Amino acid sequence: METEIKEKINSEKNCSIILRKYFISKNFLKKKKIEKNILKFQKNLTSIEILNEQLKNFLQEIFLLKKEFSFIGEVVQRINKDKILVKINQDGKFLVNCGKKMERIQTSPGARIAIRSNNYIAHRILSSKTDPLVSLMKIENVPLSTYDSIGGLDFQIIQIKEVIEFPIKFPEIFETLGVTQPKGVLLYGPPGTGKTLLARAVAHHSGCTFIRMSGSELVQKYIGEGSRMVREIFLMAKTHAPSIIFMDEVDSVGSSRGNSEDSNGDSEVQRTMLELLNQLDGFEAQQNIKVMMATNRLDVLDPALIRPGRIDRKIRVPNPNVEGRLAILKIHIKKIKVEPGIDLWKISKNLQGASGADIKAVCTEAGMVAIKNLRTTISNEDFNQGIRKVIYKGISIQSSIHSLFLY
Ligand code: ATP
Q1: What angle, 0 to 180 degrees and rounded to 10, lies between the N-to-C axes of helices 356-372 and 380-390?
Q2: 143 shares its domain with 241
Protein backbone atom coordinates (compact mmCIF):
# COMPACT_ATOMS: atom_id res chain seq x y z
CA MET A 1 0.00 0.00 0.00
CA GLU A 2 2.76 2.33 1.01
CA THR A 3 4.66 1.65 -2.23
CA GLU A 4 1.51 2.35 -4.29
CA ILE A 5 1.09 5.73 -2.59
CA LYS A 6 4.78 6.52 -3.24
CA GLU A 7 4.48 5.64 -6.97
CA LYS A 8 1.38 7.82 -7.27
CA ILE A 9 3.18 10.77 -5.67
CA ASN A 10 6.17 10.23 -7.98
CA SER A 11 4.03 10.09 -11.10
CA GLU A 12 2.21 13.29 -10.02
CA LYS A 13 5.60 14.96 -9.47
CA ASN A 14 6.70 13.92 -12.98
CA CYS A 15 3.49 15.22 -14.39
CA SER A 16 3.94 18.61 -12.82
CA ILE A 17 7.55 18.79 -14.11
CA ILE A 18 6.39 17.95 -17.63
CA LEU A 19 3.60 20.49 -17.35
CA ARG A 20 6.07 23.14 -16.19
CA LYS A 21 8.40 22.34 -19.04
CA TYR A 22 5.49 22.54 -21.45
CA PHE A 23 4.51 26.01 -20.25
CA ILE A 24 8.11 27.25 -20.36
CA SER A 25 8.56 26.10 -23.95
CA LYS A 26 5.17 27.58 -24.88
CA ASN A 27 6.26 30.93 -23.48
CA PHE A 28 9.62 30.65 -25.26
CA LEU A 29 7.87 29.94 -28.56
CA LYS A 30 5.58 32.91 -28.06
CA LYS A 31 8.58 35.15 -27.34
CA LYS A 32 10.35 33.91 -30.48
CA LYS A 33 7.24 34.53 -32.57
CA ILE A 34 7.09 38.10 -31.30
CA GLU A 35 10.82 38.58 -32.10
CA LYS A 36 10.23 37.15 -35.59
CA ASN A 37 7.41 39.60 -36.19
CA ILE A 38 9.55 42.50 -35.00
CA LEU A 39 12.35 41.44 -37.38
CA LYS A 40 9.88 41.09 -40.26
CA PHE A 41 8.59 44.57 -39.57
CA GLN A 42 12.10 46.04 -39.45
CA LYS A 43 12.99 44.30 -42.73
CA ASN A 44 9.93 45.78 -44.39
CA LEU A 45 10.90 49.17 -43.06
CA THR A 46 14.42 48.95 -44.57
CA SER A 47 13.09 47.77 -47.94
CA ILE A 48 10.65 50.70 -47.90
CA GLU A 49 13.58 53.01 -47.13
CA ILE A 50 15.57 51.52 -50.03
CA LEU A 51 12.60 51.91 -52.36
CA ASN A 52 12.17 55.49 -51.20
CA GLU A 53 15.84 56.20 -51.90
CA GLN A 54 15.55 54.68 -55.40
CA LEU A 55 12.44 56.72 -56.08
CA LYS A 56 14.27 59.87 -55.04
CA ASN A 57 17.13 59.06 -57.45
CA PHE A 58 14.72 58.37 -60.31
CA LEU A 59 12.89 61.62 -59.70
CA GLN A 60 16.20 63.46 -59.71
CA GLU A 61 17.17 61.81 -63.01
CA ILE A 62 13.80 62.71 -64.55
CA PHE A 63 14.30 66.28 -63.39
CA LEU A 64 17.76 66.42 -64.99
CA LEU A 65 16.50 64.84 -68.22
CA LYS A 66 13.69 67.37 -68.42
CA LYS A 67 16.12 70.22 -67.80
CA GLU A 68 17.15 72.27 -70.79
CA PHE A 69 20.59 71.44 -72.23
CA SER A 70 22.61 72.36 -75.30
CA PHE A 71 24.05 70.49 -78.25
CA ILE A 72 27.49 71.41 -79.53
CA GLY A 73 27.51 72.11 -83.24
CA GLU A 74 30.03 73.23 -85.83
CA VAL A 75 29.17 76.15 -88.11
CA VAL A 76 29.02 75.06 -91.75
CA GLN A 77 27.75 78.34 -93.19
CA ARG A 78 26.08 81.54 -92.02
CA ILE A 79 23.01 81.83 -94.22
CA ASN A 80 21.91 85.29 -93.08
CA LYS A 81 21.70 87.46 -89.96
CA ASP A 82 19.47 85.03 -88.07
CA LYS A 83 20.02 81.64 -89.67
CA ILE A 84 23.05 79.33 -89.50
CA LEU A 85 23.71 75.94 -91.06
CA VAL A 86 25.36 73.76 -88.40
CA LYS A 87 26.68 70.21 -88.20
CA ILE A 88 25.81 68.39 -84.97
CA ASN A 89 28.13 65.39 -84.42
CA GLN A 90 27.19 62.50 -86.69
CA ASP A 91 23.49 63.50 -86.74
CA GLY A 92 23.84 65.62 -89.85
CA LYS A 93 23.36 69.26 -90.77
CA PHE A 94 20.62 71.48 -89.36
CA LEU A 95 19.42 74.97 -90.19
CA VAL A 96 19.03 76.73 -86.87
CA ASN A 97 17.87 80.18 -85.75
CA CYS A 98 20.17 82.57 -83.97
CA GLY A 99 19.44 83.83 -80.48
CA LYS A 100 19.37 87.58 -79.83
CA LYS A 101 23.03 87.74 -78.82
CA MET A 102 24.19 85.64 -81.74
CA GLU A 103 22.53 87.88 -84.34
CA ARG A 104 25.17 90.52 -83.77
CA ILE A 105 28.16 88.13 -83.59
CA GLN A 106 30.14 87.09 -86.65
CA THR A 107 30.53 83.30 -87.02
CA SER A 108 33.09 81.75 -89.30
CA PRO A 109 32.85 78.20 -90.71
CA GLY A 110 34.30 75.66 -88.28
CA ALA A 111 33.42 77.70 -85.15
CA ARG A 112 31.82 75.73 -82.31
CA ILE A 113 28.47 76.93 -81.07
CA ALA A 114 25.93 75.84 -78.42
CA ILE A 115 22.39 75.07 -79.61
CA ARG A 116 19.45 74.81 -77.17
CA SER A 117 17.93 71.32 -77.11
CA ASN A 118 14.30 72.44 -76.70
CA ASN A 119 14.00 75.01 -79.51
CA TYR A 120 17.18 74.54 -81.60
CA ILE A 121 18.31 78.14 -81.15
CA ALA A 122 22.02 78.90 -81.36
CA HIS A 123 22.77 80.92 -78.27
CA ARG A 124 26.50 80.97 -77.62
CA ILE A 125 29.90 80.71 -79.36
CA LEU A 126 32.28 78.25 -77.72
CA SER A 127 36.01 78.56 -77.79
CA SER A 128 37.63 75.71 -79.72
CA LYS A 129 40.56 75.76 -77.30
CA THR A 130 38.42 74.59 -74.39
CA ASP A 131 37.82 71.21 -76.02
CA PRO A 132 38.52 68.70 -73.26
CA LEU A 133 39.59 65.99 -75.71
CA VAL A 134 42.42 68.09 -77.05
CA SER A 135 43.88 68.56 -73.59
CA LEU A 136 44.37 64.79 -73.45
CA MET A 137 46.98 64.95 -76.20
CA LYS A 138 50.54 64.71 -75.03
CA ILE A 139 52.44 67.91 -75.69
CA GLU A 140 56.01 68.64 -74.70
CA ASN A 141 57.34 72.09 -75.31
CA VAL A 142 60.85 70.92 -76.17
CA PRO A 143 61.59 67.31 -75.19
CA LEU A 144 64.70 66.55 -73.14
CA SER A 145 65.92 63.53 -75.18
CA THR A 146 69.00 64.12 -77.31
CA TYR A 147 70.80 62.21 -80.06
CA ASP A 148 73.35 61.18 -77.39
CA SER A 149 70.70 59.10 -75.65
CA ILE A 150 70.21 56.97 -78.78
CA GLY A 151 72.50 54.05 -79.49
CA GLY A 152 73.11 52.15 -82.73
CA LEU A 153 70.95 54.38 -84.94
CA ASP A 154 73.58 56.71 -86.45
CA PHE A 155 72.40 56.21 -90.03
CA GLN A 156 68.76 56.87 -89.06
CA ILE A 157 69.80 60.04 -87.17
CA ILE A 158 71.56 61.38 -90.29
CA GLN A 159 68.45 60.76 -92.39
CA ILE A 160 66.13 62.39 -89.86
CA LYS A 161 68.41 65.40 -89.60
CA GLU A 162 68.20 65.83 -93.38
CA VAL A 163 64.43 65.59 -93.61
CA ILE A 164 63.29 67.26 -90.39
CA GLU A 165 65.98 69.22 -88.58
CA PHE A 166 67.69 71.04 -91.45
CA PRO A 167 64.51 72.28 -93.17
CA ILE A 168 63.27 73.67 -89.84
CA LYS A 169 66.60 75.31 -88.97
CA PHE A 170 67.58 76.53 -92.43
CA PRO A 171 64.43 77.06 -94.51
CA GLU A 172 66.17 79.75 -96.59
CA ILE A 173 68.48 77.14 -98.20
CA PHE A 174 65.46 75.29 -99.54
CA GLU A 175 63.86 78.55 -100.67
CA THR A 176 66.98 79.71 -102.54
CA LEU A 177 67.31 76.41 -104.31
CA GLY A 178 63.59 76.28 -105.02
CA VAL A 179 63.37 72.83 -103.46
CA THR A 180 60.13 71.87 -101.75
CA GLN A 181 60.67 70.96 -98.12
CA PRO A 182 59.80 67.41 -97.10
CA LYS A 183 56.64 67.20 -95.01
CA GLY A 184 57.26 64.11 -93.04
CA VAL A 185 58.87 60.74 -92.46
CA LEU A 186 57.71 57.27 -91.58
CA LEU A 187 59.73 55.28 -89.06
CA TYR A 188 59.08 51.56 -89.28
CA GLY A 189 60.51 48.63 -87.38
CA PRO A 190 59.92 46.19 -84.53
CA PRO A 191 58.65 47.43 -81.15
CA GLY A 192 61.05 49.09 -78.72
CA THR A 193 63.76 49.99 -81.21
CA GLY A 194 63.79 53.71 -80.45
CA LYS A 195 61.34 55.27 -82.91
CA THR A 196 59.71 57.49 -80.29
CA LEU A 197 63.14 58.30 -78.89
CA LEU A 198 64.31 59.45 -82.35
CA ALA A 199 61.24 61.67 -82.82
CA ARG A 200 61.73 63.26 -79.38
CA ALA A 201 65.43 63.87 -80.00
CA VAL A 202 64.85 65.55 -83.36
CA ALA A 203 62.19 67.78 -81.75
CA HIS A 204 64.73 68.68 -79.05
CA HIS A 205 67.53 69.55 -81.51
CA SER A 206 65.27 71.58 -83.77
CA GLY A 207 63.60 73.41 -80.84
CA CYS A 208 60.15 72.16 -81.78
CA THR A 209 56.99 71.52 -79.81
CA PHE A 210 56.44 67.78 -79.74
CA ILE A 211 52.82 66.67 -80.16
CA ARG A 212 52.34 62.94 -79.66
CA MET A 213 49.22 61.08 -80.68
CA SER A 214 48.65 57.37 -80.92
CA GLY A 215 46.69 55.99 -83.89
CA SER A 216 45.04 53.33 -81.76
CA GLU A 217 43.87 56.00 -79.28
CA LEU A 218 42.38 57.96 -82.17
CA VAL A 219 40.13 55.09 -83.19
CA GLN A 220 39.47 53.52 -79.78
CA LYS A 221 39.43 56.30 -77.21
CA TYR A 222 37.90 59.05 -79.31
CA ILE A 223 35.20 56.96 -81.01
CA GLY A 224 33.33 59.09 -83.53
CA GLU A 225 35.76 61.95 -82.95
CA GLY A 226 38.81 60.62 -84.81
CA SER A 227 38.61 62.93 -87.81
CA ARG A 228 37.92 65.98 -85.64
CA MET A 229 40.88 65.07 -83.45
CA VAL A 230 43.13 64.90 -86.53
CA ARG A 231 41.97 68.41 -87.50
CA GLU A 232 42.56 69.66 -83.96
CA ILE A 233 46.07 68.17 -83.87
CA PHE A 234 47.09 69.99 -87.03
CA LEU A 235 45.46 73.20 -85.76
CA MET A 236 47.37 72.87 -82.52
CA ALA A 237 50.62 72.18 -84.41
CA LYS A 238 50.03 75.39 -86.38
CA THR A 239 49.51 77.49 -83.26
CA HIS A 240 52.59 75.99 -81.56
CA ALA A 241 54.85 76.04 -84.65
CA PRO A 242 57.61 75.08 -85.13
CA SER A 243 56.24 71.72 -84.18
CA ILE A 244 56.51 68.01 -84.83
CA ILE A 245 53.42 65.84 -84.89
CA PHE A 246 54.42 62.32 -83.91
CA MET A 247 51.76 59.77 -84.80
CA ASP A 248 52.55 56.43 -83.20
CA GLU A 249 50.88 53.14 -84.27
CA VAL A 250 49.71 54.83 -87.46
CA ASP A 251 48.68 51.42 -88.87
CA SER A 252 45.55 51.56 -86.64
CA VAL A 253 44.32 54.46 -88.79
CA GLY A 254 46.19 54.00 -92.03
CA SER A 255 45.65 50.32 -92.92
CA SER A 256 44.86 49.77 -96.58
CA ARG A 257 41.15 49.19 -97.16
CA GLY A 258 41.44 45.48 -97.95
CA ASN A 259 43.16 44.78 -94.65
CA SER A 260 40.41 45.96 -92.35
CA GLU A 261 38.95 42.98 -90.55
CA ASP A 262 36.31 44.80 -88.56
CA SER A 263 33.64 46.14 -90.86
CA ASN A 264 31.74 47.98 -88.08
CA GLY A 265 34.54 50.28 -87.08
CA ASP A 266 35.62 50.48 -90.70
CA SER A 267 33.86 53.67 -91.74
CA GLU A 268 35.08 55.48 -88.62
CA VAL A 269 38.69 54.43 -89.33
CA GLN A 270 38.24 55.40 -92.99
CA ARG A 271 36.94 58.84 -92.04
CA THR A 272 39.92 59.39 -89.74
CA MET A 273 42.31 58.22 -92.42
CA LEU A 274 40.74 60.47 -95.09
CA GLU A 275 40.99 63.44 -92.73
CA LEU A 276 44.65 62.59 -92.15
CA LEU A 277 45.30 62.56 -95.92
CA ASN A 278 43.36 65.79 -96.22
CA GLN A 279 45.43 67.48 -93.50
CA LEU A 280 48.71 66.17 -94.94
CA ASP A 281 47.77 67.69 -98.30
CA GLY A 282 46.42 70.86 -96.73
CA PHE A 283 49.46 72.23 -94.98
CA GLU A 284 52.48 73.73 -96.64
CA ALA A 285 55.84 72.36 -95.58
CA GLN A 286 57.04 75.96 -95.09
CA GLN A 287 54.63 76.32 -92.14
CA ASN A 288 57.25 74.74 -89.87
CA ILE A 289 55.15 71.69 -89.12
CA LYS A 290 56.66 68.25 -89.67
CA VAL A 291 54.86 64.95 -89.42
CA MET A 292 56.56 61.84 -88.13
CA MET A 293 54.71 58.55 -88.23
CA ALA A 294 55.74 55.28 -86.62
CA THR A 295 54.55 51.75 -87.20
CA ASN A 296 55.48 48.14 -86.53
CA ARG A 297 53.41 47.08 -89.59
CA LEU A 298 54.66 48.70 -92.78
CA ASP A 299 53.06 45.88 -94.78
CA VAL A 300 49.49 46.92 -93.92
CA LEU A 301 49.79 50.67 -94.53
CA ASP A 302 47.72 52.23 -97.29
CA PRO A 303 50.08 53.34 -100.11
CA ALA A 304 48.06 56.57 -100.39
CA LEU A 305 49.19 57.58 -96.93
CA ILE A 306 52.89 57.09 -97.51
CA ARG A 307 53.25 58.33 -101.07
CA PRO A 308 55.87 61.05 -101.71
CA GLY A 309 54.40 64.52 -101.13
CA ARG A 310 52.72 63.28 -97.98
CA ILE A 311 55.43 61.15 -96.39
CA ASP A 312 58.69 61.85 -98.19
CA ARG A 313 60.99 59.36 -96.56
CA LYS A 314 60.60 55.94 -95.02
CA ILE A 315 63.27 55.11 -92.47
CA ARG A 316 63.79 51.58 -91.24
CA VAL A 317 64.57 51.26 -87.54
CA PRO A 318 65.63 47.63 -87.05
CA ASN A 319 66.71 45.72 -83.97
CA PRO A 320 70.36 46.66 -83.27
CA ASN A 321 73.32 44.56 -84.38
CA VAL A 322 76.10 43.68 -81.93
CA GLU A 323 77.78 47.13 -82.23
CA GLY A 324 74.42 48.83 -81.81
CA ARG A 325 73.66 46.74 -78.76
CA LEU A 326 77.03 47.71 -77.27
CA ALA A 327 76.27 51.41 -77.88
CA ILE A 328 72.82 51.09 -76.27
CA LEU A 329 74.30 49.16 -73.31
CA LYS A 330 76.84 51.94 -72.78
CA ILE A 331 74.03 54.52 -72.68
CA HIS A 332 71.92 52.64 -70.14
CA ILE A 333 74.88 51.55 -68.06
CA LYS A 334 75.77 55.22 -67.42
CA LYS A 335 72.89 55.44 -64.96
CA ILE A 336 73.88 52.35 -62.94
CA LYS A 337 76.96 51.28 -60.95
CA VAL A 338 78.84 48.32 -62.49
CA GLU A 339 81.89 46.33 -61.36
CA PRO A 340 85.18 47.53 -62.94
CA GLY A 341 85.89 44.32 -64.92
CA ILE A 342 82.52 44.12 -66.64
CA ASP A 343 82.66 42.67 -70.19
CA LEU A 344 80.16 44.76 -72.17
CA TRP A 345 81.15 43.25 -75.52
CA LYS A 346 80.32 39.74 -74.27
CA ILE A 347 77.03 40.95 -72.82
CA SER A 348 76.07 42.56 -76.15
CA LYS A 349 76.89 39.31 -77.95
CA ASN A 350 74.60 37.43 -75.57
CA LEU A 351 71.82 39.91 -76.28
CA GLN A 352 71.23 38.71 -79.84
CA GLY A 353 67.76 39.64 -81.15
CA ALA A 354 67.15 42.13 -78.34
CA SER A 355 65.63 45.55 -79.00
CA GLY A 356 66.75 48.77 -77.30
CA ALA A 357 63.86 48.46 -74.86
CA ASP A 358 64.93 44.87 -74.04
CA ILE A 359 68.49 46.06 -73.34
CA LYS A 360 67.18 48.73 -70.98
CA ALA A 361 65.08 46.06 -69.24
CA VAL A 362 68.13 43.76 -68.90
CA CYS A 363 70.08 46.58 -67.18
CA THR A 364 67.21 47.16 -64.75
CA GLU A 365 66.88 43.43 -64.09
CA ALA A 366 70.65 43.05 -63.46
CA GLY A 367 70.38 45.92 -60.96
CA MET A 368 67.52 44.13 -59.21
CA VAL A 369 69.63 40.95 -58.89
CA ALA A 370 72.47 42.96 -57.28
CA ILE A 371 70.02 44.60 -54.86
CA LYS A 372 68.57 41.22 -53.92
CA ASN A 373 72.09 39.98 -53.10
CA LEU A 374 72.80 43.12 -51.06
CA ARG A 375 75.56 44.33 -53.40
CA THR A 376 76.22 47.93 -54.41
CA THR A 377 77.72 47.16 -57.84
CA ILE A 378 76.44 45.02 -60.73
CA SER A 379 78.50 42.05 -61.93
CA ASN A 380 78.75 40.04 -65.18
CA GLU A 381 76.70 37.27 -63.55
CA ASP A 382 73.92 39.75 -62.64
CA PHE A 383 73.73 40.69 -66.33
CA ASN A 384 73.58 37.01 -67.32
CA GLN A 385 70.65 36.54 -64.94
CA GLY A 386 68.99 39.68 -66.32
CA ILE A 387 69.38 38.36 -69.88
CA ARG A 388 67.91 34.99 -68.91
CA LYS A 389 64.93 36.70 -67.31
CA VAL A 390 64.20 39.29 -70.03
CA ILE A 391 65.33 37.70 -73.28
CA TYR A 392 64.55 34.06 -72.73
CA LYS A 393 61.12 34.66 -71.23
CA GLY A 394 59.60 35.29 -74.65
CA ILE A 395 59.90 39.10 -74.77
CA SER A 396 62.62 39.41 -77.31
CA ILE A 397 62.10 36.08 -78.99
CA GLN A 398 58.73 37.46 -80.04
CA SER A 399 60.16 40.67 -81.44
CA SER A 400 62.93 38.87 -83.32
CA ILE A 401 60.47 36.44 -84.89
CA HIS A 402 58.35 39.46 -85.83
CA SER A 403 61.37 41.14 -87.40
CA LEU A 404 62.38 37.98 -89.29
CA PHE A 405 59.06 37.97 -91.11
CA LEU A 406 58.52 41.63 -91.69
CA TYR A 407 61.79 43.45 -92.09
P1 ATP B 1 57.05 51.08 -80.15
O2 ATP B 1 57.13 50.69 -81.58
O3 ATP B 1 56.60 49.94 -79.28
O4 ATP B 1 56.27 52.36 -79.91
P5 ATP B 1 59.55 52.46 -80.10
O6 ATP B 1 60.33 51.95 -81.26
O7 ATP B 1 58.89 53.78 -80.24
O8 ATP B 1 58.53 51.36 -79.62
P9 ATP B 1 60.83 53.64 -77.86
O10 ATP B 1 59.57 53.96 -77.14
O11 ATP B 1 61.54 54.74 -78.53
O12 ATP B 1 60.55 52.46 -78.86
O13 ATP B 1 61.85 52.90 -76.87
C14 ATP B 1 61.48 52.43 -75.61
C15 ATP B 1 62.63 52.62 -74.64
O16 ATP B 1 63.68 51.71 -75.00
C17 ATP B 1 63.24 54.00 -74.71
O18 ATP B 1 62.69 54.85 -73.77
C19 ATP B 1 64.71 53.75 -74.44
O20 ATP B 1 64.96 53.79 -73.06
C21 ATP B 1 64.95 52.33 -74.92
N22 ATP B 1 65.55 52.32 -76.27
C23 ATP B 1 64.99 51.81 -77.38
N24 ATP B 1 65.82 51.94 -78.42
C25 ATP B 1 66.92 52.58 -77.98
C26 ATP B 1 68.14 53.01 -78.58
N27 ATP B 1 68.37 52.82 -79.88
N28 ATP B 1 69.05 53.63 -77.82
C29 ATP B 1 68.83 53.82 -76.50
N30 ATP B 1 67.70 53.42 -75.86
C31 ATP B 1 66.76 52.80 -76.58
Answers
A1: 120
A2: yes
Instruction: Specify the residue with its C-alpha closest to ligand 1, atom 22.
Output: 356
Are 372 and 266 part of one and the same domain? no
> What's 44-107 look like in SS3?
HHHHHHHHHHHHHHHHHHHHHHHCCCEEEEEEEEEEECCEEEEEECCCEEEEEEECHHHHHCCC
Atom of ligand 1 nearest to the CA of 294: 2
CATH number at residue 86: 2.40.50.140
**Number of domains within the chain:** 4
Ligand 1 center–CA 152 separation, angstroms: 12
Q: Which residues line ligand 1 (CB under 6 A)?
A: 150-153, 191-197, 248, 294, 296, 328, 331, 356-357, 360
Model confidence over 62-88: pLDDT tens digits? 887 777 777 888 888 888 878 888 887
What percentage of the chain exceeds 70 in pLDDT? 85
Same domain, 82 and 172: no
Atom of ligand 1 nearest to the CA of 331: 29
Q: Is the domain of 388 the same as that of 359?
A: yes
What is the predicted pLDDT for the residue at 395? 47
The pTM (predicted TM-score) of the whole model is: 0.64
- Which atom of ligand 1 lies closest to the CA of 295? 2
Bridge-based pairing state of the strands 70-80 and 112-116: antiparallel
Asked if residue 51 and residue 151 are part of one domain, the reply reads no
Containing domain of residue 236, as a range? 133-316
φ, ψ (nearest 5 deg) of residue 209? -75, 135
pLDDT tens, residue by residue, 5-53: 777 767 777 777 777 888 888 888 888 888 888 888 777 777 788 888 8
Same domain, 187 and 288: yes
Ligand 1, pocket-test mutation among 145, 156, 185, 196, most atoms within 8 A of CB: 196
